[in-house]
Amino acid sequence: MDIPAQAHPQQGWPANELEEVLTASVGVPDAGGRLVEVLGRSPVWVPLPNGGGPESPDLDLPTVEIGGAAYVPVFSSEAQFRHCAGPALPFAVAPARDLARGLPPQLGLAVNPGGAV
């Protein structure tokens, strides 16, 4: 008997559309356009190691260096965030598009660094 899986399981992978597209893009060289499209309309979990929140005037975003470039780490779900950052690190959930637009041009977004995909 076939039992349909939940579309977006609470703690499983994939938990949302962004994670579905991340999974489908592995090994697909021309998946960049679709990834950017879905990321642009998705919320992301942003680590805030110094506390604060989206409305804080002095929000201090962490960065990671990948290939000599700086990126703000973001996560595709709370489960991915907790897997990589642990249970105690504060975070904010923000629309990826708005977050990216507010970053200086030399910073990018790194989705799920150290995570599933």
The 3D shape can be described as: globular
Task: Provide mean pLDDT, rounded.
Answer: 88
The largest pleated sheet is described as:
3 strands, mixed
Which structural class should the secondary elements be placed in?
alpha+beta
SSE order in H/E notation?
HHEEEHEHE
The spatial strand order of the largest sheet comes to 2-3-5
Organism: Streptomyces halstedii
Protein name: SseB family protein
Domain SseB protein N-terminal: 18-116
Task: Give structural notes.
With 117 residues, the chain is α+β, with helices and mostly antiparallel strands. It has one domain (17-111). The protein has helices at residues 17-25, 32-40, 78-85, 96-102, and strands at 43-47, 64-66, 69-74, 91-95, 107-111. Strands 2-3-5 form a 3-stranded mixed β-sheet, with no helix packed on it. Strands 1-4 form a two-stranded antiparallel sheet. The protein is globular, with a radius of gyration of 15 Å. The relative contact order is 0.22.
Based on the model shown, name its key terms.
disordered N terminus; single chain; three-stranded mixed beta sheet; alpha+beta; two-stranded antiparallel ribbon; 4 helices; about 120 residues
Q: Can you describe this structure in just a few lines?
A:
The protein has four helices and five strands.
Write the layout of secondary structure elements.
Layout: H1 17-25, H2 32-40, E1 43-47, E2 64-66, E3 69-74, H3 78-85, E4 91-95, H4 96-102, E5 107-111
Helix pairs in contact: 1-2
